[in-house]
Amino acid sequence: MSDLEIRPRPTVGLSRLVGLLVVLMASILGPTSAAAPAPSTAPAPRRASRASRPAPEPARLPFDREASTSIFLVGAAVHVGNGTVIEGGVVELRGARIVAVDGPERAGALPSGAAVIDLAGKRLTPGLVAAASPLGLVEIDMESATVDAERQDGDPIRAGYDAAMAINADSSLLPVNAIEGITSAAVTPRGGLLSGQVAWIDLVAGDHVGIVARPRIAAAGTFGSAVAGSRAATFARLHEVLDDAALLRDRRGSFDKRQTRELSAHRLDLEALAPVLAGEVPLVMRADRASDLLALAELARSSPLRVAVVGGAQAWKVADVLAAAEVAVIVQPSLNLPQSVDQLGARLDDAALLHAAGVRVGITVLDDPHNARNVTQEAGIAVAHGLPHEAALSAITLELARIYGMEQHYGSIEPGKVANLVVWDGDPFELSQWPRQVYLRGQVIPMRSRQTLLRDRYRDLGRFRDRDE
């Protein structure tokens, strides 16, 4: 009976088959049995394939909430993040979003009884972004129980590893970085040629349900010779995996029937690369050597892939090629002392040279979730070596949001974007400056972390001395 339902003979119509089944059941049950209702002839609903029908990008993020009242931030020098500065600006917040951004003329036309925060003499910037960071995946590097940054199976192809599933919202590192102005992070797994899927989070400590603003915003990996023994072999391996991901996408039916050749990676890892192949999310690769950067630029030029580079110690040597291929580069300007042969030639003005060549530049702190907050110092180093000030601010806010495809919601102080904002007394790139207030999704956060609690607890050491006496 099940065979008939799944593979009906072409000479028997569906209605005729249903009638025959009803007669057969009636003859078995006998005339005194109640007749069973005929099965529905409507086809069963089909579940959409995730690979072939990606869900449309939502206009709202999961944490968006309705709000009827506004808060007005008035009087600050508003550094929008796109190079614009509005002196004495007025920024209206409602719920988790920025509603309006105006000049000083708006200050005299606020609604009666409005909630106003006076920021005269302050600077207001977008919330800072920690890019290519294991923040939320690593607490103590030397304690394996607190490390979820990579898949430990030895396979270099780990594209299906989803960082969003392992974010620790109780990490003490979230408030440590949030009170220093880091409001969002592109949480990135590590290890292997293809490390896994990047998640965009806001640093809302303790919010286990809402901390992830959007999962799977990029695929991350590491390029070089370590995976396959040589760079040529590594590049061939990457091409093989991408080709197999395309084959699985285009011939899924044949794959399910075992009518395709053997694939080079696990099905789940290849499925995870479908948005990368379509250019919907970027492929963000760690690479420093000029030859690696040229190979990635060629990959971007010859395919629909959106490619970005993290590290880029020698990127200044091939800046024009990267610009022509529209390959973005995320750098850490202070890393001018080579830690490997691949980083020979690293220089403090790398960001400035890339920016001058037309490359999209982001700035971050690599591999250190404890000190992602030092990104303002990194930006200051870039400014000291030729990067324009507002370009440096954009490199730690809007440009990073653009690289990861989140610019619709993050990176600048513009209407409709998430209200992640930082209030400063002076230039954020000066080491003597630190945030006075931080807004996360429209809410002021307490300027408190495990470090400040320990500071306050042991500030007065005299009381412990008196106790001993």
For the largest beta-sheet, the strand count, sense and barrel status come to: 8 strands, mixed
Radius of gyration from the alpha-carbon trace, in angstroms: 28 Å
The helicity comes to 25-40%
- What is the CA-CA span between the terminal residues? 90 Å
Structural class: alpha/beta
CATH topology of the largest domain: TIM Barrel
Give the C-level CATH assignment of the largest domain.
Alpha Beta
> What is the number of beta strands?
16
Mean residue pLDDT: 88
What low-confidence regions span 5 or more consecutive residues with pLDDT below 50?
Answer: 1-18, 20-58
The CATH H-level superfamily of the largest domain is: Metal-dependent hydrolases
Shape: globular
> How many separate structural domains?
2
Tell me the number of helical segments per DSSP (H or I, 4 or more residues long). 15
The fraction of residues in strands falls at 15-25%
The CATH level-2 architecture of the largest domain is identified as: Alpha-Beta Barrel
Structural overview:
The protein has 469 residues and is an alpha/beta fold. It has 15 helices and 16 strands. The strands form two sheets. Strands 1, 2, 3, 4, 5, 14, 15 and 16 form an eight-stranded mixed beta sheet that branches. Strands 6-7-8-9-10-11-12-13 form an eight-stranded mixed beta sheet. The N terminus is likely disordered.
